[in-house]
Amino acid sequence: MVVIGGGPAGLSAAVSAARNGCSVTLLERYHHLGGMASGGMVLVLDDMVNEGNEIVTTGIVNEFVDRMSAQDGAVFPPPEDCLTNWEMWKKWSRWGCIDFHKTGMPQPIIHAVAFDPDCWKRVSLDLAREAGVNLRLHSWFSEAMVEDGRVTGVICQTKLGRQAIKAKMVIDASGDLDVASSAGASFQTGQYIVTTVFRLCDVDTDKAEAFEFENPEEYKALDRQVRRVIGGAWGMWWLKTPLPGIVWCNCPHMPGYDGLSPEHMLAAEVEGRERMMKLLAFVRANLPGFENAKMLGAAEQLGIRQTRLLQGEYVVTRVDVRSRRHFSDSVCRGRDYYTPYRALLPKGIDNLIVAGRHYSVESEAQKLSREIPPCMAQGEAAGVAVAVALDQNCALRDATLPRSRNACVPRAPTPATSHQQMRSSKAPSLQNKKDNKREYPSFPTLRCPHSGLHPGHAGAMCNPDAGRFRCGRHQDRAPRCGRPVAALLRRAVGRGHEQRRLLVAEPQQAVCRDRHQVR
Q1: Residue closest to 403 by CA, chosen among 511, 327, 335, 337
Q2: In degrees to the nearest 10, what's the CA dihedral of 138, 143, 149, 152?
Q3: What's the CATH number of domain 192-298, 1.10.760, 1.10.260, 1.10.150, 3.30.70?
Q4: What is the DSSP letter of 396?
């Protein structure tokens, strides 16, 4: 199989498929892996936790955090600091570890990870090589090879000329739906703000933070002027990085540019750099802590957020995302939203699956569901789907995906998990070495202790806002079935026998305490 695009989604797809026994070629146009995480310098991993700050987006993203931490390339708050008070706000807000969905101040501190872009590149290479992925950098996708509605490979452009790569399956992780659109798949186009992200060095961050917290009104006045100079930014236009004295600036916001047009992208690069230098001059002259700041450089890749969006077998809507709709074929999740398998499959095109920000979704819904960790989860799911389809010798849409996973597939019903638990978890192998038969290890999910139904089941009552669920059969037993999810998790972690009772492998195997077989 071949994966187009070596960003977070594509790398996750390639590693996932390779670990599951596929021969994988990963095609990337730049000289590095990492896409928007490294080349685009989007240097905070977020959208991984639910309302209770429990990690719900898992898998290879956790491996990245572990490996980058070991290289001093990642910073994140410990669980005991994930609170809502001014002390923790002052400690962690400039790392980007805040719940930006909340408007009240101080905003809660949540699990998010600030990281170094070059460390991300190193970890990407390590994971790809360890999994046995065949890397093809400096290779620009040109067009899809299609025969009778089936994608049979891709053509890429290199310094040596055009080259063809034949494959039984193709994963489009290009970010712009390059492969699927070339193959004739239906899509819509959209636009969002673009950004030339940049970093400044020689910044005295301690002095800058002290000025902000000790002189809040004066700082707010200066901050408003900075925003006018840069021409649009998020709530915090500068954030700290793991490298001392270096801050990253996820700005300016520039609307109206088409991320597919070379002319528009050139204009955005020129305008963005002009705004960067104006901001640097202003903060050097006016903002304490930035007196000696220097331009370290802009991101290698323009920050494009939305271009082509697949119109696949299911189109995720804004209502789906906002209402936290759970699907029967959910394969991954973000903060509190789910992605169905159908949203990764183009209509009328076989042997092709997509992963990343260009999945099948409405434009407004995509703006709420395009963060890096959920895109990585999509990639992992796509990689396993390809492995299953090849193993079953069937089309991707006909593949029987089990209600279980290897650790590469953070399926939607996964129990919310603490960071320490995720750091200690290991991925089971899909290959049974004894009898050489492919197995899909059980995927434990949080379920009602009486009926075995998980919150996403059609027979369950789920109230995500309250953090509670009740099964359909026992919905009248609020004291027993309506316990907070967090309390159930603590019991599951605390005692092994409780864990076996609360976390079951398959719903059809569960028997409730009252001896009712699950329907």
Answers
A1: 327
A2: -40
A3: 3.30.70
A4: G
Q: For the CA atoms of 321, 99, 113, 287, what is the dihedral angle to 10 degrees?
A: 130
User: Residue 244's pLDDT band (boundaries 50, 70, 90)?
Assistant: very high
Question: For a pLDDT cut of 70, what percent of the chain falls above it?
Answer: 77
Could you tell me the two tokens for 315?
Answer: 């189109």
Could you tell me which residue, 501 or 339, shows the higher pLDDT? Answer: 339
CB 351 within 8 A of CB 75: no
pLDDT, tens digit, 9 for 90 and up, residues 340-398: 999 999 999 999 999 999 999 999 999 999 999 999 999 999 999 999 999 999 999 99
Q: Strand pairing of 198-201 and 170-172? A: unpaired
Cα torsion 210, 213, 218, 221: sign: positive
CATH class of 2-34+122-188+307-422: alpha beta
Q: Where are the domains of the chain?
A: 2-34+122-188+307-422, 192-298, 445-509
Phi, psi angles (nearest 5°) of residue 249: -125, 110
Token code pair at residue 183: 């193959």
Q: Model pTM?
A: 0.80
pLDDT over 90 (residue 234): no
- Cis amide leading into 106 (omega within 30): yes
Q: How far apart are CA 8 and CA 178, in angstroms?
A: 16
Residue 395 has a CB neighbour count (10 Å cut-off) of 13
What CA–CA distance (Å, rounded) separates 232 from 275? 10
